[in-house]
Amino acid sequence: MEGKGRTCHSILICCMILFMCGCAQIEGSADVSDRRVRIVVGCPGYSTKAVIPDEDRVNDINILIFENGLMEEAIWKDRIYGPEDLEEEISLVKGREYSVCAIANMGRPIKPESMKDLEEMTFELHEKDSYMTGIPMSAYASGLTADHGSVFRLELARMAAKVSIRIDRCRLDEGVTMLVRNVRIGNYPRRVSIFGPSKAQSSDDVFENGFELTEDQCNALNVYGQDRMSGEVSLYMLENMHGNRTRDMEDGQMETASFVEMTIDYRSSELISYDSPLIYRFYLGENADNLDIERNSHYHMTILPENDGLSGDGWRVDKSGIGPSTPIFTMHPGDYVEGHVGDTLRVWCECYPKTSPFDPGMEELEYDRQRGIYDYMIDEDHHGVTLYLRKPGVGIVYMTAGAPINRSGMVLVCVNP
Question: pLDDT tens digit string along 375-391?
Fold first, then answer.
């Protein structure tokens, strides 16, 4: 009995030791147990007025959680209809440090293995307007630790910039009219890094013609009151950071640096844009020498044309399509030319606008060719003709221009032996 008692006593002590160890293990595990935390992603909310595109819309979102730089969990949400903040509750381990990323409007779930992989990812446009229903956005927070009831809040930032433009016509000469027909982004980036900065490296990285507003979409720029300040229109473009202009690199920079271009119907008392529009082009940045277009920035531009509006201050003006407001029609070298058999003569018409309908006198030229007076070749622009004199006689070159010129002229051609 005494031996059994010692045995029972030993067993009891062992049980107590095991029980105490078990309690210690349970208490210790409580320090590293999962904690429920809320991740809140601040969505911009839908705009109260129609814009192109809907700059605040969130169609889908990826929420990515990293621990020690490696993917811990990935959450994908699509069909997001409301403007409210998006909330997601997950379990994380207490005491560990996390990084959380949110990427909106990617159009698909993404699962990078590490934070480094995510930093190398880009949002890419397959067509220049393929994000019209939702601008790509991202948010990032690091150094987050989980405790019960913790809230991790992230605010989405657009990967694109907004450019708002208006025109102040108060310094234009009386009688000068400038009617905007088109506003567009040139050298429009095809892709943007999720967390930037982003820069188009070559012509393959940009669309030559990007986001644009046409006709009625530009109407606000053509409406103004007594102060002659127009309404405002806005364009959107992905980030494109080119830094300051450098003389050695400017040519390469200009191939991929983004710009805004306006095409304008122009008229003054002396000049008019018959053949092609007046073009204003300007670059964005912190100053005149800077070419940075930064994500989540709003650029405000006021165009202030002065006097005749054909010179620029901070923008480039292409006035190659501007000509006299009074149509021009002059036959050259005069109304009479002569030469000898075997000679070559040229007859042409100087006219403006060159886009007016024009007939170089095909019927008369063909008639004289059939008579053997000369052979002929029409100029590439159809405003002149080269005559190869073949036989003595008299022929004519009769040219006609349609509206708005509405004139015709004749040159008598005398071929001597």
Answer: 999 999 999 999 999 99
